[in-house]
Amino acid sequence: MEICSTNENVSKCSSNTMSMECFMVLSTPAQKIGITVLCCFFGILCIFENSLVLYLIFSSIKIRRKPSYVFISSLALADLLASINFVGSFVKFHVFKVTDSKNIFLLKLGAVNTSFTASLGSLLLMALDRYVCICKPSEYKIIITKKKALVALAVLWMTTMVIAFLPLVGWNCCTLNSNCSELFPFVDDKYLSGWISLVMILLVCIVCAYMHVLWKAHKHTAYMEKHQTQAVQQNAKMRLDVTLAKTLAIVLTVLMVCWSPLLALMTYSVFVNLNNRIKKVFAFCSTLCLVNSMVNPIVYALRSRELRSSLRNACSWCRKKLKIPGSSQEVDSTQKLSTIGTVCEDAGCSTDWPQLKSEL
């Protein structure tokens, strides 16, 4: 690794080629085994969990017709693709030291970047959905429709793809003959700075939306405590709506914890030359992206009653097919649970809350 001891070997690109060995910072078998175990463990869990979430959503007509779950399915799809693309490319490059041409490498990097950026964008759309549902419940069904949700997701995915593949179509340090990032081969420092700024803006927007949502959720809780004589059904739906707001706040917290170290190191690399030790820290911190993608579906499964009910129904169906005793009782219980409304159901964000709306 002596050839990579100076920054000039990393920050320059000539004839569309550069020393890829400068970016392969894992030098010991223990480091390679550690990265492989982390990537495979988190990656397999991500693929299983997000595939399960997508199945539960699309196997239920009642669930998949709701805009909120359209956004959740986009998040699950983005996390699924991110785990597949990231694990394959990351392990292949850092552990097995298999290199690709410039265009192939930037194509793979663009796929990973698209997935993770789309995941972040889906969280922003979910935050806006919660904002409208809690702050403007009587107008929710007019403002947020399934058609509008699909259009928003189409714009989101197309935008993230365009931004992610800019290095492939020409915004790279080889084409521009500019300084390359010390963390990503062929990536221009200015492009990396722009992508970091975009992520920061998205995070600020999400935080602002959730701060307002959680403030409204707190007022919901205080209102319900003062009006215990209201109908049980209405209270249940309001409490479930508040629960979902808290669920998405947990997802946001996990997102910040997992992405903050990466963004900090990326920002640091733009201004300061990095040594191999910091690059190794960045390599291990990169696996936090998989942790975020793994935690998202777990949070949904634990806190979304409709997804839990759908999961119980699926398990009960499997047990019934296998003729396992006790499956009939579980089917009855899951059918009762499935009748409880959750995410902005027809009565959840409608004019059924006149007193609440005036209270807010």
UniProtKB/TrEMBL annotation:
SUPFAM superfamilies: Family A G protein-coupled receptor-like. The chain crosses the membrane at residues 33-57, 69-93, 105-128, 149-171, 191-215, 247-269, 281-302. Gene3D superfamilies: Rhodopsin 7-helix transmembrane proteins. It comes from the Eukaryota. GO terms for molecular function: cannabinoid receptor activity. Pfam families: 7tm_1. It is a multi-pass membrane protein. Residues 49-300 form the G-protein coupled receptors family 1 profile domain. Keywords: Cell membrane, Cell projection, G-protein coupled receptor, Glycoprotein, Membrane, Receptor, Transducer, Transmembrane, Transmembrane helix. It is found in: Cell membrane; Cell projection, Neuron projection. GO terms for cellular component: neuron projection; plasma membrane. Belongs to the G-protein coupled receptor 1 family. PANTHER family: G-PROTEIN COUPLED RECEPTOR. This is Cannabinoid receptor 2 isoform A. It comes from Alligator mississippiensis (American alligator).
